[in-house]
Amino acid sequence: MNTDNRPEVVLGVGAGIAAYKVCELLRRLTESGHSVRVVPTADALRFVGEPTWSALSGRPVATGVWDSVHEVPHVRIGRRADLVLVAPATADLLAKAANGLADDLLTNTLLTARCPVVFAPAMHTEMWEHPATRANVATLRSRGAVVVDPAVGRLTGADTGPGRLPEPDDLYAVARRVLARRDLPADLSGRRVLITAGGTREAVDPVRFIGNRSSGRQGYAFAATALARGARVDLISANVALPDPPGAEITRVESAREMREAALAHSTAADVVIMTAAVADFRPAESAPGKIKKTGEGPAPIELVENPDILAELASRRDDPGRLVVGFAAETDNVLEYGRAKLERKGCDLLVVNQVGDGRAFGTEDNQAVVLGADGSATEIPHGPKEELADRVWDLVAPRLGPAHTRP
User: Fold this and answer.
1) Is 386 annotated as a binding residue?
2) Is 346 assigned a ligand-binding role in the annotation?
3) Catalytic positions, written as ranges
4) CATH number for the domain whose boundaries are 192-400
5) E strands of 54-116, at which residues?
6) In 10 A of CB 67, how many CB atoms?
């Protein structure tokens, strides 16, 4: 730790055009009270020069192990760090890190660091999807590093696809979450988790739908905290107006049946399924092909039919007995009574039960709950930010996980 008790962040910069975006990330880190040492590769300085990094960080910048050699920087920098964040992490840097190569100050720092390490890859789509890069990413994740999947968007030139560096604010949020857990293990490293979030909509006609008040904030909090703990996250998002958690793979759906199809498809690769989404229990038996008009004779009745029970189906159709299934129960009254009955009926391993209504839970920044376990346990989570609730649930999930498997 730095002598002035500010978190010590090593910001490694790879040789990619996205290096210009990292200047804003550096500004966010320094202005929020972090002590930042920028360690670029030599070729990274072709994109953003040493004076810029030095001026923004307020500290000298070096790329080689022979600079200030009497201070043994290739060992000292890594040992002192509370976090090493590499952005952009090029395909070359990922390969060197995965194979333990150390030919400059940054790669030496990666070998000597004993703190959390976060890689933010940025490269062309073909390079990101190449089997060698995917293998290197899997190796780094298996060792406990957090590798944030790149964003999808405009790349160099006219190319578009996965490989874009996430926005500085998103990377800052990842760094903040990882730093908050810097003294704790990345207990979800090498794990793949499936999270559902938001509220489904069931069409009455092309204009109207049956829905609910879920904002998706709790599910997105689960995704963000899982990423900070090293997991690979598949997020099924239903009608959510929130920024995507950087690094999560997003599948967008609207209705309960679309969510069921996506959840069944993604669950086979998951170690854990977290069903935070508010899935409509019923849908119209038929959706009108055109907008329903007033007739002056009152509305025609809408016949409702039951939607599939996705949580119960995922719990009963497990092809891997080691997969954990966590459900949510939003109740307005008799919360624990209904929660225990639902836990038994659904067959999941954990059920997060919370009271909703009167300004509680839906659309708010905070939440509270009781987590019921199939083993008879009951854990109260006091009122607080939704990210804290998510972390408390992950604390219950992680010890229940079996041995990690190699998953797609």
Assistant:
1) no
2) yes
3) 212
4) 3.40.50.10300
5) 83-89
6) 13
